[in-house]
Design brief:
alpha/beta; Dihydrofolate Reductase, subunit A; 3-stranded antiparallel beta sheet; 11 strands; binds NADP nicotinamide-adenine-dinucleotide phosphate
Length: 163
């Protein structure tokens, strides 16, 4: 396994992460943060998240987890389990779990760090990130942003470190 297992996620006020296999909202500032954090590294995702993105992301090693024997994913490697995906990254310093809900949940117990974007607003969602309890996690970094002409809601970039 890589030395650090990190999750990268954008959540709303209720920990919602998606609806009908899409993100909750188009949010360019978060996409930029995501790109900065993950470029040059391995990203591990569930098959539904890969479908939702529609393509492999450039300048990153894309690993898709699926049980389907005949799945074809252009530009992405396929792993049959989370363990197999992490094993592919065993020589790396930090690997990035990028969702969705099923994969975040399965990886949560072994996740060391969470790069979280918190939108301080509620959306209708059908998929959620696990609860980040103070008992298990400490806020290592935080920057708060007010709404502006590009983003119609307040939000925070937060890094959590497992206690
Ligand atoms: N807000 C965010 O930061 C963020 C990030 C990512 C995704 N999302 C959203 O989350 C939603 C998708 O999440 P989701 O939970 O429905 O799906 P998901 O976690 O992306 O993918 C689920 C799929 O992964 C495969 N899988 C899961 N566990 C497995 C295991 N142990 N072994 C082998 N394969 C396994 C299965 O694929 P097969 O069916 O092919 O076997 C399963 O159907 C979308 O709305 C997306 O937009 C949000």
């Amino acid at each position: 396994m890589s030395k650090i297992i990190s999750a990268v996620v954008v959540v709303d006020a209720n920990n919602g992460i998606g609806k009908e296999n899409k993100l909750l909202v188009h949010f360019p500032a978060d996409l930029k943060r995501f790109k900065n954090i993950t470029t040059g590294h391995s990203i591990v995702m569930g098959r539904k998240t890969f479908d939702s993105m529609g393509r492999a992301l450039p300048n990153r090693r894309n690993i898709v987890i699926s049980r389907q024997a005949d799945l074809v994913t252009e530009g992405a490697e396929i792993a049959r389990s989370l363990e197999e995906a992490l094993n592919l990254c065993r020589d790396e310093d930090e690997v990035f779990i990028i969702g969705g809900a099923e994969i975040f949940k399965q990886a949560f117990a072994i996740t060391d760090r969470i790069y979280l974007t918190r939108i301080h607003k509620s959306f209708e969602a059908d998929t959620f990130f696990p609860d980040i309890s103070n008992r298990s996690w400490r806020e290592a970094e935080r920057t708060d942003f007010q709404p502006d002409e590009k983003t119609p809601f307040s939000y925070s970039f937060i890094t959590y470190q497992k206690r």
